[in-house]
Amino acid sequence: MSQENVEVARQVDSAFNRRDVAHLLGLLDPEVEWIPTMAVLEGRVYNGHDGVRRWIEDLGADWELFEQYTEEVHDLGDRVLVLGGWRTRGVEGVNRPAWLYHFRQDKIVRLETYIDRGEALRAVGLLE
Length: 128
What we know:
Elements: H1 2-18, H2 21-26, E1 28-35, H3 37-42, E2 46-47, H4 48-62, E3 65-75, E4 79-89, E5 98-104, E6 107-114, H5 117-123
Parallel strand pairs: 1-6
Antiparallel strand pairs: 1-2, 3-4, 4-5, 5-6
């Protein structure tokens, strides 16, 4: 099952970058807990499909361009760790985040965003 999870995690970037909300939501459990970067910083969680829709709307209001891309994928069974980055317009700087997707029955049930890759790698036991 984990190879299927890797493929689902890879599809997230494509669906998100096209703003194909229907496809993105199809990858997510209806009860998903979505914790993107700003939510991490603000201590907030977007819950369910409505929460993810609200997050996408918030991004559109705040950013002229906001895309994510994948550099590495780590298959962890019922979790997939993705190391990647963002392309943005409107903010200078280099961001190299990591996303940890939790799966249940081939759907993403939780997304955790890590701003520090080392922290993400330590959290999943890939770095001491």
